[in-house]
Amino acid sequence: MLALLQLLNLPEASTAAKNFTGLYDFIFYISLIGFVGVVLALLYFVIFYHRKKIDPETTPYIHGHAVLESSVAVGLFVIVMIIFYWGWMDYKKIIQSPSNSLEINVTAKQWLWGFEYLNGRKFTNELTVPKGKPVKLIMTSSDVLHSFFVPAFRLKQDVVPGTYTTLWFNATETGTYEVFCAEYCGTAHSGMLAKIKVVEPGEYDHWQKIWEWEKQLGVSSTTSAVAEKSVTSAEGQKGEEKKENNISPVERGQKLFTEKGCTACHTVNGSPLVGPSLKAVFGHEVELEGGKKVLADENYIRESIVEPQSKIAKGFQPVMPTFKGTLSDDEINALVAYVKSLGN
Ligand code: CUA
Which of 108, 67, 31, 3 is nearest to 329 (CA)? Predict the structure, then answer.
C-alpha cells in the first residue's frame, strides 16, 4: 500500500486489514485525482479568464450543458455506489465470523481488558492468538462503554455493558500488536491498553496444551515461557491469573446452573419442566409466544437470564424471575458458555 497509513508504518496484520487497504487506496486515489482536477481547473480559470482579458462591457451569457452536467452526476453516482458496494462486501466479511472460530470472552472494565479462553485460562491486558486461524471475541463491559480497537488489524468494535458485541479477525503476521480503548471511559481511558501476541499455530497449541496438562496434574508453578514473562512483566495490571481460579467457563456455568436453582425449571436432557429444556437450544431458532422466531445466540441467552420476560418461548408461562443484578458478568458469561455447550 502506498497511501498514508504506510507512512505511519502501521502493519497490516489481519485479513480485514488487507481487504480495507484496497478500498482505502481506492478512496484515497479517487480523492487525489478529484483534488488535482479541481486545482488545475481553478488555475486554468484564474489564468485564462483573468478580468483584464475579457471585454469589461459585455458579460458573457453562459448556457448550461445538459449532457456534461448529467454525466458528471452519473459519474459521481457510480463512484459512490462502487465505494458503497465495496464497503458493504468488506463489512459483511468482518461481521460474519466463521463457524470454526476460536472463541475468547472479553470483559472490559475501567480500565483494563480481561480475556478468558474456553479452557478457563485468564489474562489481563494481553491476549495470545494463533496466526492464520479465525478468532472470535465475545465482548461485554462491566461498567461503561468501551471500544476495542486494534489499528494493525483495522478493526474496532464498541464494548457495551449489558449485552454482547463480537469482533472476529484472522491474524496474518506473527508479532505483537497494540489494543486501544477507543471510547472515552473516564480518567485512565488513555491507559486502557492491551497487547495481542500472534504466534504460529503450533506454538499456540503447545502453549495451551502445556497449561492444560499442568492444570490436570495440579502443578501450580508456571513453566510456560510466555506466561512466565507475562506474570513478571513490569506493567502493573498485566498477565495471567493464578491457575486455581481457572476452571473453564463451561464448568463454572454448570456449577452455577445448579447453585442458582436453574435446575428447578430447566433440564439439560431435552424434556421440558416449568421452563424449556436447554438442550440443543443454542444456535437454533426458538419459536416465541405470538409466532415470532429468534436465533438463540449469546445475546438471546443473556437476555433470557437478566430479562426473562422480554421473550417468552412458545408454550411456556412468563414466570421466570430476573437475575439482573444478582449475577456478575463473569457468571453470566459462564452460564452462556454452559448453555452453548449444550447446543447443537
Ligand atoms: Cu475504556 Cu476508554
Answer: 108
> How much distance in Å is there from the Cα of 105 to the middle of ligand 1?
17
pLDDT over threshold 80, residue 51: no
Q: What is the pTM of this model?
A: 0.71
> Strands 146-150 and 155-159, how do they pair?
antiparallel
Q: How many CB atoms lie within 10 A of CB 114?
A: 19
Which pLDDT value is given to residue 244? 57
Residue nearest to ligand 1 atom 1, measured at CA: 146
Query: Three-state SS string across 7-27, please?
Result: HCCCCCCEHHHHHHHHHHHHH
Q: In this structure, are residues 301 and 334 in contact, taking their beta carbons and an 8 Å threshold?
A: no
Q: What is the mean pLDDT of residues 123-141?
A: 92
Closest of 139, 344, 124, 120 to residue 254, by C-alpha: 120
β pairing state of 285-287 and 293-295: antiparallel
Verify whether ligand 1 is closer than 6 Å to residue 215 (CB atom). no
Burial 296-330 (b: 16+ CB within 10 A, else e): bbbbbbbbbbbebeebbbeebeeebeebeeebebb
Span between the terminal Cα atoms of the chain, in Å: 43
Please state, in angstroms and rounded to a whole number, the distance separating the CA atoms of residues 60 and 65.
Answer: 15
Residue 209's Cβ-side half-sphere holds a number of Cα atoms within 13 Å equal to 6
